[in-house]
Amino acid sequence: MNDLFKTIEHPAEGLYKEKGSKFLARAYPVSSEAQIKELRAKLQKLYHDARHQCYAWRLGPEKIHYRVNDDGEPSGSAGLPIYGQIVSRDLSNVLVVVVRYFGGTKLGVGGLIQAYRAAASDALDHANIIECKVYDKVKLDFEYGQMNSIMKAIKDKQLAFEDQHFDLECSLVLRSWKRKTAEVLATFSKVPGCKITVIEE
């Protein structure tokens, strides 16, 4: 079950130097392609004088959504070695960009692969790797008279609130760890008159 994945807690930096060329690596925790585009745009402005900005990213607990980019370097010499470092640490929801300042001496494809790999590795070595849970959103609709039973179940299951509305007709949106969702649904199904919906993301 894909209900746990590893990512990095905060942005991290790395550096590799070879024959005058500098490879500045930047690693970021990300959650969407929109966020990746935003970060890349900022880096392009910040390092506008650099020769190349190569990158790789992977998103989602299934780890099947990814992209690599060589940004003008020989095919397979930059994006894939960066991506290899993400894969070797089993990370997801992460973007690694390596900015290259050319030092005047060509490194060859083998040298570039080593340089981009080493820079990405240095950034991820400086990152704090954390484990994240994947959650479902569960919506409950119930009458006010059911409040005590509902609240007791929420406390027993240690569920977090996403949204709430209390009136004669009440509704709550809760976060449930995927692994526990079936158990959570079974608990609330025992409360008379409680309507349960799992919200698809």
* CATH homologous superfamily designation of the largest domain: Impact, N-terminal domain
Structural class estimated from helices and strands: alpha+beta
Poorly predicted segments: none
So, CATH architecture of the largest domain?
2-Layer Sandwich
Q: Report the order of strands and helices.
A: EEEHEEHEHEEHEEHE
Q: Output the radius of gyration.
A: 23 Å
Q: Using the coordinates shown, work out and report the CATH topology of the largest domain.
A: Ribosomal Protein S5, domain 2
Strands ordered across the widest β-sheet = 2-3-6-4-5
Number of domains: 2
End-to-end CA span:
17 Å
3D shape = elongated
CATH class of the largest domain: Alpha Beta
Number of strands: 11
Roughly what is the average pLDDT, rounded to an integer? 94
Please bin the fraction of helical residues. 25-40%
Largest sheet: 5 strands, antiparallel
Number of helices: 5
| SS strand fraction | 35-45%
Features:
alpha+beta; Ribosomal Protein S5, domain 2; five-stranded antiparallel sheet; 31% helix; elongated
Mind explaining what this structure looks like?
The chain is of the alpha+beta class and 201 residues long. It has five helices and eleven strands, in the order E-E-E-H-E-E-H-E-H-E-E-H-E-E-H-E. Strand 2 and strand 3 form a beta hairpin. The radius of gyration is 23 Å and the shape is elongated.
